[in-house]
Amino acid sequence: MFIESIGVRGYSTVATWRHALPSSHKPKERNKQPLGNRPNFLHPWHVMKGLRRSTTCALKARLPIAATIAVATVLATGGCFLFPNTDPVARVDADPIQGIAPLTVEFDAASSYDPDGTIRRYEWDFGDGHEGAGVRIDHTYAAAGTYEAILTVVDRRGGRATDAVEIAVRGANELPVAAFSAYPSPAYPRQTVRFNAGASYDPDGEIESYAWGYGDGSTGTGESTSHQYSAVGTHTVTLTIRDNDGGERTATATVTIATDIDTSGTVSRHFEWEYGGHEESCDLEISLDLYRYYKSQPRTAFVSRDYDEYVLDPLDDDDLEVITAEIVAGAGGDYHAQLENALFFVQHCVEYVYDPYWYEYPRYPIEMLVDRIGDCEDTAILYTSLVRTLGHGALMVAVDTSGEGVADHMIAWAPVEQSFITAHPDRSFWDYHGNVYAFAETAVEGGYVPLGVDPWGLTPDDIDTIYDVSSVDRAPKAVLLPGR
Fold it and tell me: Pick from 78, 108, 138: which residue ends a domain?
């Protein structure tokens, strides 16, 4: 049924429409009167009654406007459309969209909708010669290949829309290949051993998980990881990887933990400086193994860092005893001369290099002796390490040199005896927990600053944090001795 025309004439409208019925339908004899001969004003239900009794017919009648609207409404609900149709919107979801054959995929068209009505049909073309129907449907792809599954939705007025999704079906899964590196090995007890599985790969997919067994009962996860062993011996490390299809592979390697690691590999360093008007020099043989170990250590976040940890690490103690003896040999047995000689060595033999402004990188003493670079934190670490090796405690002190209330520099305090204080009454000495320390500026860009000389003129208010190389101590309770 459809309207051919609607025209306005005076206070009424003239509507022409046609209604078609199946050819098998025959009207009754009593209804053979032509509709066109009926009264000009007809009730809409009479019109519909007459239409329903005709096989095909055309009607022209004068109807009041309100009646015409009523007739149009009736005709619309019976199958004729007075307003344009808005097509539906097709949306397809599928899970999974890739995998190994046979692959069963769940298709879902529930997100589809019709803006001005309802969807009557959901038709699926799975791209492999099979079709289906329904809002939700499962389909199994038997063979490997790439398929385009197409959803077609049809609304009640014949409007159509489509959406598609690509399904990738693979053949039999190829297992991933597991491989990893471990460094260093051999390693000392408590030394951090780093593991990296970056060489692992999956030939037909991707690796989803990495599981580690360190051989001492401990486990870990991730492509890269680390572990510290406490027990001496050989440990078998196992890596198990799993790919996105559930395939697994493992790889193993051994890590040796020992206390008598061969340190025959060394790097030689020659240093020259001045002390007491004399030329000083020394030649150091530094363990490459120790250097590489310290170079591999992570640097903790600045806010949680204890700088004394870089001095107190025990692995370099034996090496530092030999190194310190070489450095202070020219000072003989005079303790204060040894302190000042070591200070001049650090000031002159370590080139001052700033850390990048976005990253603090404190260095261990062995690192500085090999690389011969460092900033104020690094030189304070090296100097207090040398003083500690001489058998005396020393302190690293974070200070505010600008008066802005924020620590911006690191210096050292070395313990001195009364004879040194008496010999240098104009120098800077500090009382800390009952012990007297001399100010030591370790970071000097050219020249020397003697032990006890404070180029900043600091006061107790400028002391931010004190690091004791024998224990962690963050209580700034130092007192500047009167008259210093």
Answer: 78
Helix (H, G, I), strand (E, B) or coil at 154: strand
The CA dihedral of 401, 405, 410, 416, to the nearest 10 degrees, is 80
Strands 351-352 and 373-374: parallel
Which of 374, 349, 361, 375 shows the shortest CA–CA distance to 448? 349
Diameter of the chain measured on Cα atoms: 141
Task: Tell me how many domains the chain contains.
Answer: 4
Ranges under pLDDT 70 in the chain: 1-82, 260-264, 300-305, 356-359, 470-484
What pTM value is reported for the model?
0.49
For residue 177, what is the DSSP state? B
- Quote the tokens at residue 255: 């890590």
Strands (E), 180-293: 181-183, 192-196, 207-213, 219-221, 224-228, 233-243, 248-257, 266-275, 278-287
**In the structure encoding, which two tokens stand for residue 193, read together?**
């051993």
Domain with 283 in it: what CATH number?
3.10.620.30
Q: DSSP string covering 121-148, please?
A: EEEEE-SSS-EEESSEEEEEE-S-EEEE
Burial 416-433 (b: 16+ CB within 10 A, else e): beeebbeebeebbbbebe
Confirm whether 88 is domain-assigned: no
- Whether residue 237 is found in the same domain as residue 274: no
Q: Could you tell me which of 345, 447, 443, 338 has the C-alpha nearest to residue 401?
A: 443
Quick one: pLDDT at residue 354? 82
pLDDT of residue 445: 84
DSSP class of residue 204 equals T
Ramachandran angles phi, psi of 174, nearest 5°: -95, 130
pLDDT in the model for residue 393: 82
> Can you give the pLDDT at residue 298?
78
The pLDDT of residue 392: 80
- Same domain, residue pair 369 and 462: yes
Domain around 442:
266-480
List the one residue out of 397, 399, 443, 439 whose CA is nearest residue 415. 439
pLDDT of residue 61: 44
DSSP state of 87: P
Q: What is the pLDDT of residue 221?
A: 96
Tokens standing for 322? 């030999």
Give the separation between CA 119 and CA 113, rounded to whole angstroms.
7
The reply to whether 87 falls in a domain is: no
